Amino acid sequence: MRRSIATVSMSGTLSQKLEAIAAARFDGIELFEADFINFNGSARDLRRQAEDLGLGIDLYQPFRDFEGMPDAQFKRSLERAERKFDVMEELGCPLVLVCSNTSPLSLNDPARSAAQLHELAERASRRNLRIGYEALAWGRWVNLYQQAWNIVDTANHPHLGVILDSFHTLSLKDDPSGIAQLPGDRIFFVQMADAPLMSLDVIQWARHHRNFPGQGKLDVETFFEQVLLSGYTGNLSLEIFNDVFRETPNRRTAVDAMRSLLYLESQVRQRLSHSAHNPAAPEAAAASRALQRLDLAMPPPAQDLQGYNFIEFAVDAPGAQALGQTLSALGFEHAGHHRSKAVDLYRQGEIQLVINAQPGSEASQRFEDQGPNVCAFGLSAADPVQAANRAAALLSARHHSPLGPQELQLPAIIAPGGAVVHFVHAGTTLAADFDPVPSRPGPPADAGLTHIDHMALALATDQLDTWTLFGKAILGLQAGESQELADPFGLIRNCALSNPSRALRLVMNASTSQRTRTARQVHTTGRSGGSVHHIALGTPDIFATVRRLRERGVKWVPISANYYDDLLARLDLDEALVRDMQAHHIVCDLSAQGRFLHAYTEPFADRFFFEVVQREDYDGYGAVNAAVRMAAQEQARPA
Ligand SMILES: O=C(O)c1ccc(O)c(O)c1
Ligand SMILES: [Mg+2]
């Protein structure tokens, strides 16, 4: 299918947009009216620019409120249409989008609308142009695709077809399953948009909050599957009105856009091949024809990743010493010193943490840019090479690190913001690359921490959708509910990503205020737009772990006594247990089935901190306690 994107979906001047769109290997664009009106050149200039970049101008939307008008208004519109057709000929653009009328002057008269669109199509046909009619969710009389199709069917002109837009159908909770029954060759164009669920006026929702397929909560896969079952073979296009995308660097937006299409295609391809191989399915034949006709993207399948194998920190030499002390206090054993680099391995339970202070390395470059930060992490995969191949097929850059003698070569990619993601076999120990460090005399360090429960990121607001898509498409994660958390200096938007087995959990935080801790941290990371904000380590007995760590000098974020009084009032908890939690600065959340106990250490170098968690049949992250933590951290900060 031809892949295209509306120019309204990205930031920049029109020429800059075209370059970013072409660099992401799109075939064409939907030209947004204002982009052309404001373009510093003629229609022919624009056509040449697009052609030089290998882009077709596949769709243009030059008029509104066209059909179903009283005769006088319609006549004037028809004359104006000829002028726009002139422009389209110069642009080399074959298709006009006419969206359903929103004017109060328009008439509820489908026969009239059909006759008027017929007349427009007849005029278009004289220049070999085509008209596509789209039902806007807020059209005055027409807002469902079935209504638009009925009018197109009545008009019965070969140069008139329908345009489908997933947003309009799914935002109204209209059933997309009738789309498969439409004649595919009368669908002239398909626009795909996802969106978060919002209870907002539909126009505001549509014009400010759409996002790419996979970034929102609409069932775009079912919609697109229906489109393909109809026999449609035209464009797969993105029309994304989004306030944040208008300011996001357009190269990143364009790559996200293409990634979203490749992901959508591959997901729907799987559905179709499932149907095609099930002769009992009524859509088996249509699914099989669609697969034969179309060359849908087919990356290696997503895997259920098995969690974090290691996390690597970038620091300088003094930082390595300080972080080493912090990890030792947290009960980690200094398990090895790298054979050829200033890199150290710390271990506890199955947790592996790496401190990288190698001068001249990529880690040191990241340290120079950001201060101490997580520069890499390893994820356990049943097939690490395929995991990296899937990522590359979905447009992640591969990462090749210079290898020392006999070092492990791990397939790796670059995550948004620049951290390196390595894929490793579950249970891989990094020890092979490290010389053992003689263990210290005295009792063993272990404090009962067994595994990495989750990692939380502090992200710039324009990185949230990018990370959501990366997590879903490349890491096989699903997005939870988006929540707002109150920091003393503003709101934090929070959303968790996790895989079906829950072995891999990643939490995203973005600050809508400039003044929160999250925002301050994001600023230190400059253009990378965020980094790891905290790491949650699991223990089967948080009371014992906190006690041991306290003896070793670990400082805990002190939680207000009022919090514990409120817990007693709010939850059905034993008073002695709550007072014990209070004595250990442990906070708590209950779910229907389970319980989450957690405690926070003080931040390292004002960057990231460690959280200790005991998870018992509980699927969340204790978000209700984030506000008490953020307030406590502010009150614990040196004045
Ligand atoms: O918001 C609008 O006006 C608008 C215009 C054209 C479209 O294709 C659309 O989906 C929305
Ligand atoms: Mg549309």
TrEMBL record:
Gene3D superfamilies listed in its UniProt record: 2,3-Dihydroxybiphenyl 1,2-Dioxygenase, domain 1 (3.10.180.10), Divalent-metal-dependent TIM barrel enzymes (3.20.20.150)
InterPro entries on file: DSD, Glyas_Bleomycin-R_OHBP_Dase, Glyas_Fos-R_dOase_dom, IolE/XylAMocC-like, VOC_core, Xyl_isomerase-like_sf, Xyl_isomerase-like_TIM-brl
Keyword Calcium attributed: no
Domain VOC: 451-583
One protein family per Pfam: Glyoxalase_5
Cofactors required: a divalent metal cation
Keyword annotations of the record: Lyase, Metal-binding
SUPFAM superfamilies named among the record's database cross-references: Glyoxalase/Bleomycin resistance protein/Dihydroxybiphenyl dioxygenase (SSF54593), Xylose isomerase-like (SSF51658)
Pathway membership, UniProt: Aromatic compound metabolism; 3,4-dihydroxybenzoate biosynthesis
This enzyme's EC code(s): 4.2.1.118
UniProt-annotated binding residues for a divalent metal cation: 134, 165, 191, 239
Reactions catalysed: 3-dehydroshikimate = 3,4-dihydroxybenzoate + H2O
Residues binding Mg(2+): 454, 534, 611
Family membership noted in the UniProt record: Belongs to the bacterial two-domain DSD family.
Job description of the protein: Catalyzes the conversion of 3-dehydroshikimate to protocatechuate (3,4-dihydroxybenzoate), a common intermediate of quinate and shikimate degradation pathways.
Stated name of the protein: 3-dehydroshikimate dehydratase
Lineage, uppermost ranks: Bacteria, Pseudomonadati, Pseudomonadota, Betaproteobacteria, Burkholderiales
